[in-house]
């Protein structure tokens, strides 16, 4: 029983899905394959060769942009995109990985899904899960999804703290594990171990977000310091921020970006600003250049007059800043003022920058 609980509780970050729509009780599988396949620890666990890693990255270039932009779409549309991209990725991996590597990857996916591995049709088939069992478990997961959505909403509205929300999400996850274990027969429980294999430490994973979309050159003008391509900045850490110079919230973040440039440029940080206009004045190259000068901006700045990069990145608000690691993967982002109402966002982002520079 202890090993069974361990196998079911080895859940990847985000196992408690929040993507089920309120009027559709069917729960969804979180995108664990999309999340895990980019991480070095997974590559090492699968014993991927350098050529295989290069082929995996080539596939990620195709799927990561649509996956990242899907985050701003309605839940049902988002899940449909995730499902399609997961299928595309899985099909490509079949041609890249050996049978032994594919088998281990399947085990890792099941571990990452935790209790929700029973939603996988292959797991259902091998465990011989009955319709009555699935009805009970699907109802459990759907209720967890609904509660998770409510918690996220309460967090965004300031009714609960992040700690309170995380504690209840953890309780939901534990409840799922307990109910799944109780719902399975002894025979089904015994069949679980071969499906999950040797436990893997998912806390060792660093990358779970997409590759940073390449900068779009269409309709843009480099105000200073360009042109740049993110692909040319491999080996550097990049802080890429979207702003509008007349936006007061953006202006309050600008001194932080300037400080990052001043403190870390010689250690390998590249700060890039993308001015995406909201007003007619912000479309004027002269006014953008003048504002950059008056704000003391010394790093590269692009005028994204047609908002092509804004759309490619799936932005929804000014300001937004992304941190990109040395291999080109997004590692963290922040929307809005970093130090809004006492929030220590700049401190947190700075800590991430230092971590990425060390790695």
Automatic annotation (TrEMBL):
Pfam families: AhpC-TSA
Coiled coil: 148-175
UniProt xrefs under InterPro entries: AhpC/TSA (IPR000866), Thioredoxin-like_sf (IPR036249), Thioredoxin_domain (IPR013766), Thioredoxin_ResA/DsbE_sf (IPR050553)
An example Gene Ontology molecular-function term: oxidoreductase activity
Entry keywords, A to Z: Coiled coil, Signal
Signal sequence, start to end: 1-22
Annotated PROSITE patterns: THIOREDOXIN_2
Residue ranges annotated for the Thioredoxin domain, each copy included: 206-358
Keyword Coiled coil applies: yes
Keyword Acetylation appears in the UniProt entry: no
Name of the featured protein: Thiol-disulfide oxidoreductase ResA
């Amino acid at each position: 029983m202890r090993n069974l609980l361990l196998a079911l509780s080895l859940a990847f970050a985000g196992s408690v899905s929040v993507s089920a729509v309120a009027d559709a009780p069917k729960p969804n599988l979180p995108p664990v394959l999309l999340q895990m396949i980019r991480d070095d620890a997974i590559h090492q666990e699968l014993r991927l060769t350098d050529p295989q890693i290069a082929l995996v990255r080539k596939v990620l270039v195709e799927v990561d942009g649509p996956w990242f932009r899907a985050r701003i779409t309605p839940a049902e549309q988002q899940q449909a995109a995730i499902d399609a991209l997961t299928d595309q990725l899985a099909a490509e991996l079949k041609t890249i990985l050996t049978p032994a590597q594919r088998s281990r990857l399947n085990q890792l996916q099941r571990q990452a899904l935790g209790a929700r591995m029973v939603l996988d049709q292959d797991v259902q088939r091998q465990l011989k899960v009955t319709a009555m069992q699935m009805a009970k478990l699907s109802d459990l997961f759907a209720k967890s999804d609904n509660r998770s959505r409510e918690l996220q909403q309460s967090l965004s509205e300031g009714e609960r703290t992040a700690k309170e929300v995380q504690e209840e999400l953890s309780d939901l996850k534990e409840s799922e594990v307990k109910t799944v274990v109780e719902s399975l027969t002894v025979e089904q429980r015994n069949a679980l171990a071969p499906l999950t294999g040797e436990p893997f430490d998912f806390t060792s994973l660093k990358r779970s977000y997409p590759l940073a979309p390449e900068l779009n050159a269409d309709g843009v003008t480099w105000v200073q310091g360009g042109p740049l391509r993110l692909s040319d900045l491999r080996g550097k850490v990049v802080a890429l921020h979207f702003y509008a110079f007349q936006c007061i919230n953006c202006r309050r973040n600008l001194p932080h970006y300037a400080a990052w440039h001043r403190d870390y440029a010689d250690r390998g940080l590249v700060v890039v600003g993308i001015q995406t206009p909201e007003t007619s004045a912000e479309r004027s190259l002269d006014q953008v250049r003048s504002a950059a000068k008056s704000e003391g901006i010394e790093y590269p700045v692009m005028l994204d007059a047609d908002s092509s990069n804004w759309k490619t990145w799936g932005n929804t608000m000014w300001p937004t800043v992304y941190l990109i690691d040395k291999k080109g993967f997004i590692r963290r982002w922040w929307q809005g003022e970093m130090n809004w109402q006492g929030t220590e966002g700049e401190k947190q982002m700075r800590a991430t920058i230092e971590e990425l520079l060390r790695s």
